[in-house]
Design goal:
alpha+beta; Trefoil (Acidic Fibroblast Growth Factor, subunit A); 6-stranded antiparallel beta sheet; 20 helices; globular; signal; Glyco_hydro_3_N
């Protein structure tokens, strides 16, 4: 190394020393500029620009053609960490190879998503792995290890976990607050992040849009208190897109953007994703905060240091030493045969056989009718790459059984739309000369269709065009021309057949048919405007006309009233092909861009009504009807009369081939449900109820009967379990048992180990996953499965003492094929730490550390840190603190409160013995006052506190 070479360029030095040297060379303005997602180059030091963020949830996304693997929830359904690690490795290799050709491809990848699938109506269910924190962290750890690579110093890509913290709703996602009690925080939401971070392959996290306990996640005190204590590595915290501005604009948490930016930076946010590529606004806010004394240069330095740490690990400053740089230059790691095979393997392992009365697998000579809205579809989602290869269920079945043995009916209604003057909507053919893509010759490239304005808009004529009307439920539909093009609305407002699939941040391919007079208005959902027929083509009405039409006023004259002429009902086509088949496969599910996606939660577990009608029609025509659900989330489906049901997430490029091979028995299904499938909407908690303990949520606490339980999945083989042993030793419980394939085909089994505390002093899970293993067994073969689980995994968060506690007593160990299919069990006795009463006489109680509550929510004690409790909507709420030890006696009680209202204190269910209320409302929600009252208690009692009015309670104390 030359004497003139600065130390930060010396690969022989530790990264930390190199970062120190580089930091010393950067000016404050240069460091400030680094805080935006698009960090500029520093030419005087030879530093290149850097962008945080590259989506890579199940393949490299948004950057063109890439291998598309199953959705994350599908990867979770494999219960196979080694497979998922290989998928992560393939994705990171493609990211490197793509970057070699296009420097827009980033190496700081924003994935995986480890938000727990607590509520199945969450629109982003497809992005998570499981409702269980241990399964989630196991799969996420595997994926991040694949993304990171195995070099001890350099990383192939730098994974960032999404979305910190307790984020499970799209409804009001940037203004809603998740009320998360301490036990749920530690035992559930933090656990998935912690285990993955501690595994050592995570570069950082992204905070979520929502608030937790009244405080925006971008100000989360847990970033410093917990996250950054779990690893010695510098963790990079990247904001979600637009979230820094939300602190002022939608959440109104601060009055100025300078205050908000300073608070987020001090809380631990290191990179601000805001205003796209324009960094000027963020830079100006940081400078304003510095000038106002809201920030110091040391605050800026801490964030920049963490950014640079990631950049060094990615080999940016050592291209000649980076083991992942050279190979990518050849492009050899992009769309390889190995990656194509892996995509198929992952899709096969993700299929879950939910029910089978013997109709599956299908024999080679079977005549198959494949029907349904998704039968000839290979759907992508918002975080998919562009398909290079694709297979639909229909294509897979053609390939496996032969086109002469497979019949098909999509099952959509075929319609024409007639205008008031008797003409029909007409779609010009795709091969019209004006439909050629600019700068191309011949055929139209379907990938370039959506949003185009050079195509001719729809017109009307005497015959019209027969359109496929696809009903996705909740009144939302798409319309497709005979050549496969979807009707779409471009920026100029004209309706064109110009999309290969529904998609985009705002979907422009969905409509609603609204009854109006003697016909229907066709309302475009993207703009909210009705369709009208004008001299220059079919378009959406102008905004003022749309408002009139929506209100039913005279303005509706500008909107066309259509008569819906049904040429063929979808059920009739299904009945026709189903009757002549040996087996009918109904492929149902969702389009990942419609009725359940980012920004939009679902409203029901039910299948859309049209798909239920198709299923009934198929079943009525042919009892041998198999339901194959292809969806991003669970459904509640009546399965009693169906001989077989399967589920798979949207499986990427190999989805159809994989499903066909499962149906034919080439592969025995072994996917397992990563979340509970509830039988009815009535079984679900409120979407915003984040208290999995109090709300009895997920398989951990749910006391009803699910449609299909967590961990469920059948096989074409059968498996026996035996020889269970369990022993407590050296701070762990060692469990062993034997699994034997008692069937006639080779197959995978997923052996699962659960635990249940038999005599808990607080509510504990009905059963809780401790470990699992997916293993492959030939017919008659056995394998000995052994797990060693640390006793700490059996602990719970003791709110009385603000720490983990392993409770003594008996624990049932349950071994089986699902959370409900228990084959073996035994009990071990643990010598833990006995419960002791809360020492309230010495330290009082923090309001948030309740054992039970009703009618309350947790709110922010201050804008920076701490929790308080308030009655929901300023009404009445109650808190219960069990086994409070007042010692020799208390003679007074104090409460720390803000707002207006009253606090009532009672013992053991008796009447209030003290009522405390401020003389006047406090100046603000964070202006706490201490109120005191006489109070007498000694010994151990349950303490009951009632809140009335708009009052925040932070602490209850007692004096002798």
């Amino acid at each position: 190394m030359s004497a003139a070479t600065p130390p930060f360029r010396d690969p022989q030095l530790p990264f930390a020393k190199r970062v120190d040297d580089l930091m010393s060379r950067l000016t404050l303005d240069e460091k400030t500029a680094f805080l935006h997602q698009f960090a500029p180059a520093v030419e005087r030091l030879g530093i290149a620009p850097f962008r945080t963020g590259q989506e890579a949830l199940h393949g490299v996304a948004w950057m063109g053609p890439a291998t598309v693997f199953p959705q994350a929830v599908g990867l979770g359904a494999t219960w196979n960490e080694e497979l998922v690690r290989r998928v992560g490795e393939a994705v990171s290799k493609e990211a490197r190879a793509m970057r070699a050709r296009d420097d827009r491809v980033g190496l700081n990848v924003w994935s995986p998503t480890v938000n727990l699938l607590r509520h199945p109506l969450w629109g982003r269910n497809e992005e998570g792995y499981s409702e269980d924190p241990r399964l989630t962290s196991a799969v996420a750890t595997a994926y991040t290890r694949g993304l990171r690579g195995d070099h001890p110093a350099y990383w192939r890509t730098a994974p960032v976990l999404k979305h910190w913290l307790a984020h499970n709703n799209e409804t009001d996602r940037d203004t809603s607050s998740s009320s998360v009690r301490p036990r749920v925080l530690h035992e559930y939401d933090l656990r998935a992040f912690r285990d993955t971070v501690e595994a050592g392959a995570v570069a950082g996290v992204m905070p979520a849009y929502n608030l937790v306990n009244g405080r925006p996640n971008h100000l989360s005190p847990h970033l410093g208190r917990h996250l950054r204590t779990w690893t010695q590595e510098d963790l990079l915290v990247c904001s979600d897109a637009g979230a820094p501005s939300n602190l002022v604009d939608s959440e109104h948490y601060f009055d100025t953007h300078e205050e908000a930016t300073a608070a987020a930076l001090r809380a631990g946010v290191d990179s601000f994703t805001d205003h796209g590529t324009d960094s000027s606004k963020i830079v100006a806010r940081v400078r304003g905060a510095l000038d106002a004394g809201l920030l110091t240069e040391a605050d800026v330095d801490a964030a920049v240091r963490r950014q640079l740490s990631v950049r060094f690990r990615l080999g940016e400053f050592d291209p000649e030493h980076d083991p992942y740089a050279g190979a990518a230059d050849t492009g050899a790691d992009f769309d390889t045969p190995e990656h194509r095979a892996l995509a198929r393997e992952a899709a096969e392992q993700a299929v879950v056989l939910l029910k089978n009365d013997g109709v599956l697998p299908m024999a080679p000579e079977t005549r198959v009718a494949v029907v349904g809205l998704l039968a000839d579809e290979c759907k992508l989602d918002w975080y998919s790459g562009t398909l290079i290869h694709r297979s639909t269920p229909l294509e897979g079945l053609y390939e496996r059984f032969g086109a002469d043995r497979v019949s098909f009916a999509e099952g959509v209604d075929r319609v024409r739309l007639r205008t008031a003057d008797g003409r029909f909507l007409h779609v010009l053919p795709a091969d019209d000369a004006s439909a050629e893509a600019p700068g191309t010759e011949g055929a139209l490239d379907p990938a370039l269709l959506a949003g185009r304005t050079d195509l001719p808009p729809l017109t009307t004529d005497a015959v019209g065009t027969e359109l496929a009307l696809i009903d996705w439920g909740e009144g939302v539909l798409t319309l497709r021309a005979p050549d496969g093009r979807y009707l779409s609305v471009a920026e100029d407002g004209f309706v064109r057949a110009s999309a290969d699939q529904p998609g985009g941040w705002v979907v422009q391919e969905t409509f609603r048919l609204e009854p109006h007079d003697d016909g229907h208005l066709l309302r475009h959902t993207g703009t909210g405007r009705p369709v009208q027929v004008a001299a220059d083509g079919v378009k959406v009405a102008a905004p003022d006309a749309a408002a009139g039409a929506a209100a039913g006023s005279a303005g509706s004259a500008d909107a066309e009233v259509f008569e819906l002429v049904v040429v063929e009902r979808g059920e009739d086509a299904v009945t026709r092909v189903a009757a002549g088949a040996d087996v009918v496969v109904v492929v149902a599910g969702n389009d990942p861009h419609i009725n359940g996606r980012e920004t939009e939660d679902r409203t029901t577990l039910r299948l859309p009504a049209q798909q239920e009608r198709l299923l009934r029609a198929a079943r009525a025509a042919n009892p041998a009807t198999v339901l194959a659900l292809v969806s991003a989330y669970p459904y509640a489906v009546g399965v009693e009369t169906l001989p077989a049901v399967l589920w798979t997430a949207h499986g990427g490029q190999a989805a159809g081939t994989a499903l066909a091979r499962i149906l034919a028995g080439d592969v025995s299904p072994a996917g397992r449900l990563p979340q509970t499938w509830y039988a009815d909407d009535a079984d679900l908690p409120g979407l915003l109820d984040y208290d999995v303990i109090g709300g009895r949520q997920t398989y951990l606490y749910f006391e009803g009967t699910p449609l299909f339980p967590f961990g469920h999945g059948l096989s074409y083989a059968s498996f026996g379990y035996g020889d269970l042993t369990a022993q407590v030793r050296d701070g762990a419980v060692a469990v062993s048992f034997t699994v034997t394939n008692t069937g006639e085909v080779s197959a995978d089994e997923v052996a699962q180990l659960y635990v249940r505390a038999e005599a808990p002093s607080v509510p504990r899970p009905r059963r809780e996953l401790l470990a699992h293993r997916r293993l492959t067994l030939a017919p008659g073969a056995s394998d000995r499965v052994s797990f060693e689980v640390p006793l700490s995994a059996l602990a719970f968060w003791d709110v009385a003492h603000d720490r983990w506690r392993l409770e003594p007593g008996p624990y049932a160990l349950l071994v089986g094929a699902s959370s409900e299919d228990v084959r073996l069990s035994t009990t071990v006795t643990i010598d833990g730490e006995p419960a002791v009463p809360r020492p309230v006489g010495a330290r009082g109680v923090q309001a948030v550390d309740f054992d039970e509550q009703s009618g309350t929510e947790i709110v922010d004690r201050t804008k920076a840190a701490g929790d308080a409790v308030a009655a929901v909507s300023g009404r009445t709420g109650e808190l219960l603190y069990r086994d409070c030890d007042f010692g020799a006696g208390a003679a007074g009680v104090t409460v720390s409160v803000a707002g207006a209202g009253s606090v009532e204190v009672a013992l053991d269910g008796g009447p209030a013995v003290a009522v405390l209320s401020p003389d006047a409302p406090t100046a603000g929600p964070y202006d706490y006052v201490e109120l005191a009252s006489a109070f007498t208690a000694e010994g151990v009692h349950d303490l009951r506190v009632t809140l009335r009015g708009a009052l925040r309670l932070a602490h209850v104390g007692f004096s002798g």
